[in-house]
Design brief:
Radius of gyration of chain B: 28 Å
Low-confidence stretches of chain A: 284-290
Protein name (chain A): Branched-chain amino acid ABC transporter permease
Structural class of chain A: mainly alpha
Strand content of chain B: 5-15%
Family (chain A): Belongs to the binding-protein-dependent transport system permease family. LivHM subfamily.
Number of helices of chain B: 22
Keywords (chain A): Amino-acid transport, Cell membrane, Membrane, Transmembrane, Transmembrane helix, Transport
GO molecular function (chain A): transmembrane transporter activity
Number of strands of chain A: 2
Number of domains of chain A: 1
Largest sheet of chain B: 6 strands, mixed
Main location (chain A): membrane
Chains: A mainly alpha (290), B alpha/beta (574), C alpha/beta (233)
Oligomer: heterotrimer
Largest interface: A-B, 40 and 41 residues
Mean pLDDT of chain A: 86
Number of domains of chain B: 2
CATH class of the largest domain in chain B: Mainly Alpha
Distance between the termini of chain B: 56 Å
Number of strands of chain B: 12
């Protein structure tokens, strides 16, 4: 029973992590750039929800579209300021420019909100449901449902729409995509917007049960990074599965030992994976760029 | 990059040092002195970062962690065990080094973003340990009561004496860093940052060099951490937090990547910035973020780069000290020729090279031709060690070298050129050629003398003082060739050396290659331009789909029906 | 007859060395021209320069409009289709998605055009849901060609389409090119395999070391002339 309870918690956390990793890997595929600010975007989404809550005194689910839209705009801004000017420079430039954006977001948040942990409103309600002897917080179910829905929507757009095809073509071979009439720069901007929106949604989902502080981004970017490494660099389904695994690991080890031990073990596992199997646990990543 | 200091630079350096000194002695409040001391500490930590990241290009996010480890070593040994400065200071440098070496061995060969991630992971683990091992580290409160640094029985008090100690060490560390940067190590690191493949084919052991750079960065960080603790007299997990790393990274980038002067300039500027933005309180790092972003986007060479440009505009480009040419000695047991037997290589089921045998005798010029995709480039990559063959044997002289790494082959007497000339942008011609001798010569000066000889020999000695950027095609090719020539190779593999040359330039190149062959070099020439190749080569091999379809005298190529069919399609009769 | 494509004084180069040197030529609507020369002669660079994939100087007019300043995607949308060397299909996408991504904005037009490509290459229709990387080399080449047709081009640029194909597959491919040319699409065909290209194209342009060294009816092109283009005089 206890194990089942942990599983529910782990899946809920994993669903939110999956959104973070998804946004990270989409940008990575479209630009080959590591967006180091992804964790801080999650934090920004969480605090945005905190700030919006008194203005819109309604459940979190109503805030979600507002957060998605504002975060998408922030993603565009990020691309314009920290990616597009550096397109022709070595990849490490973008890595550093996104570190810079992360620093700005993190410390900007500290100035605006102070260092205390804050909670965003729950998506629907605060109740705990009792299902077959399991105490399941309503919020956990809501997280899984909303994250599942958003990931499903992303998959549908990418698989079924002309926009999605163009985004995928841009990610696979930007030059050839141009030669097929795809406006590649616009596609990259859209990808950054989607990536930031995913982060924002994750921020809103996480900021209720797990709280949010201006410094929460640091751990989240590492977890997204680990998820993507575990799942195979560049693989979208791999990132989602990797995120779920990380969350289950974290919840499992925390319950037996402690959160710091879980975190430490996670990072050590990451180092072991990098050294022993840099291609990820699930074989070669789907990375087919010339 | 590490050139000699010009008089203007020396003047600027002395003026800067005097200004700092005057400020410290006459104007600084105790608080101001403290900020200045911390600036010195960060400058010292950044020296190491300039070597591993600025020059080596490896984005280590563990520099802050090494700083923290150095701090904790001094803190724990000083406050818990009462050890003195003479023991704690060296140990504060040694422990980060001992940590860096195994970690470096494991993760330095990873791609750059993985390396950044791995080093960040290490930093996080160390931070967790510091917080969660209170018996050792004092947990999140840290340890108080760290003694002052004791020099020859004198406990250095805070204020001016401590600032003096720190800045004395900054001067010493900066000098060491500057010498490393402009010497063999710094140049080798810069070379492999700009082009790891070319660096390997010039004989540089990429893995070992990166490890050395990483180790040096840890030494500097550890020393800085120890001094930080002697300044604060407490150590807490804050020293292991990400803001330390962010500060070092920002100082390096804003000051100018790879420059020791940039580290000092960046540290002094950035440590004082928060004082001017007091109203931001704990959020002062916002300013760092903005400074970092603005520098990366607008002035990628940082402040020192900007100052250089201003100085160049005011005083003109400074003339480089001329270098006396010196003929590099021929390697002693230089191998005679290269023999290849039944070489094979497939990529994903496609046989790129399918049973190629050839022999390059000393003094001979062999041509390698074939239509697009016939496997010529793969052959040259296999011979130079950039790819490993699936099967077959390669012997250099009498020695079996099959599957040897590129840098080993290069050191064994093999040189190659690339299709697109790979001269590093921003470097001078003399430096670029001298880079090819870094794995051979004892120091950078000797390498430059040898480089000058090679440039003279190719008739472009007057280019020595120029930059590689904007060199016309023919001269670029010439400089590229000088890079191969300067190594006195026994075997020379040239990939399309005549591309983009005029007829006159081609004739000169042909004469030069003949001369080299007469000296006993074995030359393999991949070339499309038959008018250039056929009169020059004694023997020609033609590849088609990875197989040799012609192997014989150059004169027979034009009349061979198999060659004609491979190039023109099957229907054209020979 | 007014020119569909006219190039005047086109010069391009990488890293200081010049790959195209003052190239001028023009193509009429519906004309098929073979672009012949050894590797390194500048054929690929010429096609890429037409699309704006490599920087170049000189005048470029397509259908009477100056396209020299346009972005690649804008040139493509004006009616230029490109089949690159090495096929470069989007490996992780399905055959159908590979075609649709290059198609017109309206879904109905796209569906029509996909059917037209499937009619031309029935093999692709059978594999429409397969990932492109699972196709054989020949099928990938068909897909690359089909993809270039999806924008309803008036000019098709083909870069070494027969490279790496068996003679039988190459024959099939050239038959398809002939059919496409027959519908009034102009074709500029860069080929090393001169014999095949000349069987399709009534006119040939010879490139050597970045310069046009011959331009005329294929029938008047002697073997000796060809040999010179490839091997030098």
């Amino acid at each position: 029973m206890a194990a089942l309870q942990l599983l529910v918690n782990g899946v809920a956390l994993g669903a939110a992590y999956a959104l973070v990793a998804l946004g990270f890997v989409l940008v990575l595929n479209a630009t080959s750039a590591v967006n180091f600010a992804q964790g801080d975007l999650v934090m920004a989404g969480g605090l945005l929800a905190v700030a919006l809550a008194p203005l819109i005194p309604l459940p979190g689910i109503v805030l979600l579209p507002v957060v998605l839209a504002l975060m998408a705009a922030l993603g565009l801004l990020l691309a314009l300021a920290a990616y597009l000017p550096l397109r022709r420079r070595p990849p490490v430039s973008v890595f550093i420019s996104t570190i810079a954006v992360g620093i700005i977001l993190q410390n900007g948040a500290a100035i605006l909100f102070g260092p205390e942990p804050r909670a965003a409103p729950p998506l629907f309600g605060d109740d705990t449901l009792h299902i077959a002897g399991l105490a399941v917080p309503e919020q956990s179910l809501a997280i899984v449902a909303v994250a599942g829905l958003l990931i499903g929507a992303q998959q549908w757009v990418f698989a079924r729409t002309q926009l999605g095809r163009r985004l995928r073509a841009t990610a696979q071979d930007p030059e050839m995509a141009r030669a097929c009439g795809v406006p590649v720069t616009a596609m990259i901007l859209v990808t950054f917007a989607i990536g930031a929106a995913c982060a924002g949604a994750a921020g809103l989902l996480l900021a209720n049960r797990y709280f949010v502080t201006p410094t929460s981004g640091g751990d989240l970017i590492l977890k997204a990074y680990i998820a993507v490494t575990v799942g195979g660099w560049g693989s979208v389904p791999g990132a989602v599965v990797g995120a779920l695994l990380i969350a289950l690991f974290e919840v499992g080890v925390s319950s037996v030992l402690s959160y710091p031990v879980a975190l430490g073990a996670l990072y050590l596992t990451l180092l072991a994976i990098l050294v022993l199997r840099p291609q990820g646990l699930f074989g070669e990543a789907v990375r087919r760029r010339g | 990059m590490g050139e000699r200091h010009s008089p203007a630079e020396t003047v600027a350096l002395i003026a800067g040092a005097l200004a700092l000194l005057a400020y410290a002695l006459a104007f600084a409040s105790p608080y101001g002195l403290r900020v200045l001391t911390v600036a010195g500490v960060y400058a010292l930590a950044t020296f190491g970062f300039q070597i591993v990241f600025g020059l080596g290009g490896a984005l280590s996010l563990a520099q802050g962690a090494f700083f923290g480890v150095g701090a904790y070593v001094t803190g724990i040994l000083g406050s818990r065990y009462g050890l003195g400065f003479e023991a704690t200071f060296p140990l504060s440098m040694l422990v980060p080094l001992l940590l860096a070496l195994p970690v470096g061995l494991a993760v330095l060969r990873l791609e750059s973003h993985y390396f950044a991630l791995a080093t960040l992971g290490i930093a996080q683990v160390l931070h967790l340990l510091a917080v969660n091992l209170p018996e050792l580290t004092g947990g999140s409160n840290g340890l108080a009561g760290v003694p002052a640094a004791v020099l020859f029985g004198w406990a250095v008090p805070r204020g001016l004496p401590m600032a003096g100690l720190v800045w004395g060490l900054v001067a010493l560390g900066g000098l060491i860093g500057w010498r490393l940067a402009r010497g063999r190590l710094g140049r080798s690191l810069a070379m492999l940052r700009d082009d790891p493949l070319a660096a390997a084919t010039l004989g540089l052991d990429v893995g070992r060099l990166r490890l050395v750079g990483f180790g040096i960065s840890a030494l500097f960080a550890g020393a800085a951490g120890a001094l930080a603790v002697h300044t604060q007299r407490v150590v807490s997990p804050e020293v292991l937090e990400f803001p330390v790393m962010v500060s070092i990274l920002t100082i390096a980038i804003v000051g100018g990547r790879g420059r020791m002067a940039g580290a000092v300039l960046g540290a002094v500027l950035l440590l004082h910035l928060p004082e001017w933005f007091r109203f931001l309180e704990r959020g002062y790092l916002v300013v760092y973020g903005v400074a970092l972003l603005a520098t990366v986007v607008l002035a990628p060479d940082g402040l020192t780069g900007l100052l250089d440009r201003i100085a160049a505009r005011l005083f003109g480009r400074r003339p480089r000290a001329s270098v006396e040419a010196k003929e590099p000695p021929r390697p002693q047991n230089s191998p005679d020729g290269l023999a290849v037997d039944d070489l094979r290589k497939s990529f994903g089921g496609v046989r790129a090279v399918d049973g190629v045998s050839l022999e390059l005798r000393p003094g001979s010029i062999t041509g390698l031709i074939g239509p697009n995709g016939s496997g010529k480039s793969t052959v040259i990559n296999l011979l130079s060690g950039l790819e490993r063959p699936d099967a077959g044997r390669v012997r250099l002289g009498g020695r079996e070298v099959t599957g040897l790494r590129a840098d080993r082959l290069a050191r064994a007497g093999l040189a190659r050129s690339f299709q697109a000339a790979v001269l590093p942008n921003g470097a001078g011609v003399l430096e670029a050629v001298a880079a090819a001798r870094l794995a051979i010569d004892p120091d950078a000066r000797t390498a430059e003398a040898h480089a000058r000889w090679a440039l003279d020999r190719l008739g472009v000695g007057d280019l020595a003082g120029q930059g590689c950027d904007g060199l016309p095609a023919a001269l670029r090719r010439r400089v590229e060739l000088a890079r191969s020539l300067v190594r006195r190779p026994a075997v020379l593999l040239l990939d399309e050396p005549a591309a983009g040359l005029t007829d006159g330039e081609k004739a000169e190149l042909a004469a030069l290659l003949r001369e080299l062959a007469q000296e006993g070099v074995a030359i393999l020439l991949v070339e499309h331009d038959m008018g250039f190749l056929l009169p020059l080569a004694g023997r020609v091999l033609c590849l088609d789909r990875g197989r040799v379809i012609y192997d014989g005298p150059a004169g027979g190529v034009r009349r061979d029906s198999a060659v004609a069919a491979a190039y023109l399609g099957r229907a054209v009769p020979a | 007859m007014s020119a569909l494509l006219s190039i005047c004084g086109l010069t391009a180069g990488y890293g200081g060395s010049s790959a195209l040197d003052d190239v001028s030529l023009s193509l009429a609507a519906g004309e098929t021209v073979a672009l012949l020369g050894a590797n390194g002669a500048g054929k690929s660079t010429l096609l890429k320069a037409l699309l704006g994939l490599v920087p170049a100087r000189g005048a470029l007019y397509f259908d009477g409009a100056d396209i020299g300043g346009l972005a690649t995607e804008a040139r493509v949308r004006r009616g230029i289709g490109y089949v690159p060397e090495g096929r470069r299909v989007f490996a992780g996408m399905s055959v159908r998605d590979n075609l649709e991504v290059a198609g017109l904005p309206a879904a109905r037009d796209r569906a029509q055009d996909v059917e037209r490509v499937f009619a031309l290459f029935p093999d692709l229709a059978l594999k429409s849901r397969e990932s492109a990387w699972r196709l054989s080399g020949g099928q990938q080449q068909m897909l690359s060609l089909g993809r270039a047709l999806m924008g309803r081009p008036r000019l098709l640029l083909l870069d070494e389409p027969s490279l790496g194909l068996s003679p039988k597959l190459a024959d099939e491919l050239f038959a398809a090119v002939r059919r496409i040319a027959g519908t009034g699409t102009a074709v500029l065909l860069a080929e090393q395999s001169a014999a095949r290209a000349l069987a399709v194209a009534p006119r040939a342009v010879l490139l050597r070391l970045g310069r046009v060294v011959g331009d005329g009816p294929a029938a008047t092109l002697s073997d000796e002339r060809l040999r010179e283009t490839f091997f030098g005089g």
